[in-house]
């Protein structure tokens, strides 16, 4: 029995290109589709386009997580082993482990004849949105033996958004998440590491569904489709490349320009989400504290009581490599506790 992607009992979350309802495209990490079903066989149909690295689809079936290898380009039929149980009800979550190193089109699933697709629980009313880089995307998070160390050599196999501090925080808050995170991304075009040498920054990508020019034509996002109560802005980590001007000359022209543009970005978010709490931060990944000072100055000058800065206990000095699962957990614990203390948490956030 073939289940098409537009079936009403499938449960989606994420900034998804759904212009073609039977071919939804997953671009961002943490993007997911969930389902409950009966029967003991399962096949998943996908199409993948890769820009770099090996690509994998995240799969959690009945609480057990696996990674399914995707073809670098083209369609695939992925057979998932289902534990054989009589009259069993299974729960499945398929999710994008990686950022826009690839885009994946979900083409549906196939169940055995006589199987049934069941209702999913209602999604939480709480919603968060994260704007960030590789740490927010969970890049290299599964290389746990390298906690506190530089990254090992890899080709995408250790990246898993499920273990990003962003998704961990959402789960602790019982909240949905849109994770607008891309490895190497800085705030400004022409800086950071993403899509070099023609670097693309968050200023360009933040309001897009597709933003990687090698994978698809750029397209705009309809912000009415998802309105978060909390927005996390975790930028300032990759902005020191190719020049760490905030460290070298805090009051220089380039540093002042960055602060002006960062403030303008926050005002864009405020205009988009008039009622949201906006939390500005960086991460445990090593960086010069001048960037946190710059963020703090912008937040103070903005004078918006609902825009704050959060500094982690080991901010900017936790690890020289990407965050592994325990380090992401550390960030998520702190961030979730901070969000829970914000005014209006228990009154306006149901679920």
TrEMBL record:
Residues 12-121 form the Carbohydrate esterase 2 N-terminal domain. It comes from the Bacteria. Pfam families: CE2_N. It comes from Schaedlerella arabinosiphila. InterPro entries: CE2_N (IPR040794), PCW_deacetylase/CE (IPR052762), SGNH_hydro_sf (IPR036514). This is Electron transporter RnfD. The lineage of its organism: Bacteria, Bacillati, Bacillota, Clostridia, Lachnospirales.
């Amino acid at each position: 029995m073939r289940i098409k992607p537009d079936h009403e009992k499938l449960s989606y979350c994420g900034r998804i290109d759904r212009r073609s309802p039977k071919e939804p495209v997953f671009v961002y990490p943490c993007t997911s589709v969930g389902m409950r079903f009966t029967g003991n066989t399962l096949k998943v149909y996908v199409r993948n386009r890769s820009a770099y690295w090996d690509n994998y689809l995240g799969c959690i079936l009945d609480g057990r997580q696996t990674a399914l290898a995707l073809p670098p380009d083209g369609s695939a039929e992925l057979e998932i082993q289902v534990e054989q149980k009589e009259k069993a009800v299974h729960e499945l979550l398929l999710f994008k482990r990686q950022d826009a190193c690839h885009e994946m089109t979900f083409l549906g699933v196939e169940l055995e004849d006589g199987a049934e697709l069941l209702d999913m629980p209602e999604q939480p009313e709480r919603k968060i949105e994260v704007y960030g880089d590789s740490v927010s995307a969970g890049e290299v998070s599964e290389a746990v033996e390298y906690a506190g160390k530089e990254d090992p050599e890899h080709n995408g196999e250790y990246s898993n958004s499920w273990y990003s501090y962003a998704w961990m925080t959402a789960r602790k808050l019982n909240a949905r998440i849109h994770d607008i995170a891309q490895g190497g991304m800085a705030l400004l075009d022409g800086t950071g590491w993403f899509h070099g040498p023609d670097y693309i920054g968050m200023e360009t990508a933040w309001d897009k569904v597709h933003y990687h020019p090698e994978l698809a034509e750029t397209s705009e996002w309809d912000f009415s489709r998802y309105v978060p109560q909390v927005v996390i802005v975790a930028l300032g980590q990759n902005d020191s490349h190719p020049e760490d001007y905030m460290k070298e000359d805090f009051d220089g022209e380039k540093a002042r320009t960055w602060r002006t543009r960062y403030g303008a970005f926050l005002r864009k978010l405020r205009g988009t989400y008039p009622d949201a709490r906006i939390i500005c931060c960086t991460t445990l990944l090593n960086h010069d504290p001048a960037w946190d000072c710059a963020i703090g100055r912008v937040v103070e000058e903005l004078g918006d009581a609902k825009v704050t800065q959060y500094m982690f206990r080991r901010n900017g000095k936790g690890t020289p490599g990407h965050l592994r699962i325990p380090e992401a957990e550390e960030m998520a614990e702190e961030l979730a506790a901070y969000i829970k203390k914000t005014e209006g948490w228990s009154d306006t956030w149901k679920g």
